[in-house]
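Quick board copy: two proteins, each given as sequence then tokens.
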Amino acid sequence: DYGYGVYFDTSTNPDSYILFANDFDGINYQYDDGSDTIIQRFTLPENVNFDSVSHNSIVFTPPYGDICVSTGVGGSRLTGSNTPLLLIKHDDANFYGYVRVNSQGEIDVRTSP
């Protein structure tokens, strides 16, 4: 009822991310272990990790597709000047990938050797 999101879990080893249905209420736009429905969990390979996570939850909300972000407490609507950034690092190859999400829902992925 309250949208779908992704949660970046840095507490696991190796790191993982969860696609989830936000089943809680309309003001708590974050992943809530135990009250949200896990759609699927993905585990990163052992030599790949989240080097930096600006927001650990990103939720796409109905009916207008607003994007809400959270750092672990509550959540806030994403605005044009607030772009969540995820930095992914491959330890063995010293390779980085950057993922950005803007307020229109555009997901930008870039790499750096």
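And the next:
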Amino acid sequence: MEEVQYDNGQFLNPKPQRPTVLSVICILSFISGAWNALYNFCLFGMHDTFNKMLADDEMMEKLSGMMDGAQYEAVQSVYHTMFSIDKVYYLLTSLLYVGSFVGAVFMWKMRKTGFHVYAIAQILILIAAALFFYGPTGASPWMDVIMTAIFITWYYTFYKKEMQ
């Protein structure tokens, strides 16, 4: 948006100032979106390799020799859970986190479309997790649901007041 000035130096269309709280929330969303997009893309790329490693008894025996029994069983349980999930989930969530990041960038620029992009991406991430992760593994989705609701609510307060 271009600023237009009156002759007396006052602005007709002043550029809106981004509140500090909105800046902090956007920065947290940048970090989350970028990190999760990269993380899930890496899991997508390494999915087949890790499944082969988990099926290799010799490799797992070497891994067990590097850890004590409880550590090894915990790590093995996590890996089996992570890599029993269809690898399409990791690609899908990677792309959705890119959408979340883009929405945060638009909100950083004080554009209302950013709220919609961010909210839709976050809701689709929850739906994908319910279908691919929470349902099959029996894990609880409540922490993710609560955090998503908090961020969308925070952004919504600025959507109504500040964004154009």
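Board note added afterward: The mean pLDDT is 87.
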